[in-house]
Amino acid sequence: MDLRTFLAELDAAGELQHIHTPISPQLDVARVMAGRDGTPLLFESLTGYPGWRLAAGYVAQRAHFARALGCTVAELVQRMAKAMAHPEPPTTVENPPCQEVVLSNVDLERIPIPRYHPLDGGPYVTTGVTIIVDPDYGRNISFHRLMRIGSNRLVGRIVEQRGTDTAWRKAPEGLPIAVCIGLPPHVLLAAAMSPPKGIDEVGIAQAFAPTPIAKARTVPLDVFADAEVVLEGVLTHEFADEGPFPDLSGTMDGIRQQPVFRVTTITHRKDPIFHALLPAGLEHKNLMGMPREPTIFAEVSKVSTCTGVRITPGGCSWLHAAIQIAPQGPDDARHAIEAAFRGHTSLKHVVIVDPDVDIDNPADVEWAIATRFQADRDLIVLTDQPGSSLDPSAQQSPGQKTHTAKMGLDATIPWNEPRDGYLRVPYEPLDLESQ
């Protein structure tokens, strides 16, 4: 399934909103996206960019991923875990759709790269999936925000000690890269996952759904055959200012010296669709948080019977989790808290609940805390722990690992007390239409 097929499915289901009014990618597109966050949008007319369309919001809900993967929302964690454990080799094709148009005379200003916020350092690619090959570990795909700084240059936020950074440091002449834009949900999800080194995320995408690849035109890499746009070139050892830009937390990230991506070739489909992701919007949160859930689930399952994991939007889809377990002993919740922090080291606060609590409902989780939790008995606090740079309240020093305090709440029914007093009183519904 490519992006166009998925958008057609959403359209047929009445879920895709078409925006026919001409909209400028410079701030106005983001304003519309922010006002309709959670809704799939297709901008049919972009001011100054004839022939281009822009899609947004099509992975803003978990149901969008479930539709793309052919499963229920409840089955997503298991599907991600299975694909990570059993990647499959993709098929290589000739004459791919992503190369219907080839532009060797590169001009990035001809692409509708949005500017999202007045304080942004420049126009940003926010959904580009970067493809590289590490000489020791093989192919790696990942997301990097890219700020346009010229007609053929972008500067990327390359997080230190991650896959692209480590490969780039091994390439003194620059690292060949390709950035694919306009991809279906299953490829975006695979790119957002963090498997062990050496596991190919393209294989994870193929395990989700057929994912054809093709040879790039000017760099020794494979690209996604059905991508709407592909930028080929080199991640150089030239540096430039990157930022400021809104972060996942909704706060403004600062300016850093980052590597420059020199683009040598642009290819795209006919009548291309650019994918724009609103910083700190629901698409951003889903792609950050959901891929962490399988690793938390796996760790918690080692010490208890885990029945569900949710990285919560209120915790920036990165710092907070609600975890559902079926306790088999008095210490299961405490062990689950410790395991959750191992499963996602950036996690800051975690709540453990029973299977009768809906972890997709924040009010239900809060109800469990209100009725089943006592701070002097059920609270775990860990001090001076490795944390996330996305947390502005954490202790942050340039060039050093962020540190924070962490908290776990055991909001399960106390083990040695009668359960009846902790269960909801049920009401039998009455259907007035059947009377």
Q: What does the secondary structure layout of this molecule look like, with pairings?
A:
Blueprint: H1 3-12, E1 17-19, H2 28-35, E2 41-43, E3 53-56, H3 62-69, H4 76-85, E4 101-103, E5 124-125, E6 129-134, E7 138-143, E8 146-148, E9 153-156, H5 163-169, E10 175-181, H6 185-192, H7 201-208, E11 213-215, E12 222-224, E13 229-242, E14 245-246, E15 252-253, E16 256-268, E17 273-275, H8 282-289, H9 293-301, E18 306-311, E19 320-325, H10 332-343, E20 349-353, H11 362-372, H12 375-378, E21 379-386, E22 403-410
Parallel strand pairs: 1-2, 3-17, 19-20, 20-22
Antiparallel strand pairs: 2-3, 4-16, 5-8, 6-7, 6-10, 8-9, 9-16, 10-13, 11-12, 13-16, 14-15, 18-19, 21-22
Helix pairs in contact: 4-7, 4-9, 6-7, 9-10
Description:
The chain has two domains: 284 residues, Electron Transport, Fmn-binding Protein, Chain A (Pnp Oxidase, Chain A); 120 residues, UbiD C-terminal domain-like. Helix content is 24%, strand content 26%. The protein contains twelve helices and 22 strands. The strands form five sheets. Strands 4, 5, 6, 7, 8, 9, 10, 13 and 16 form a nine-stranded antiparallel sheet that branches. Strands 18-19-20-22-21 form a five-stranded mixed sheet, sandwiched between helices. Strand 19, helix 10 and strand 20 form a beta-alpha-beta unit. The longest helix has 12 residues. The radius of gyration is 23 Å and the shape is globular. The protein starts with a helix and ends in a 25-residue tail after the last strand.
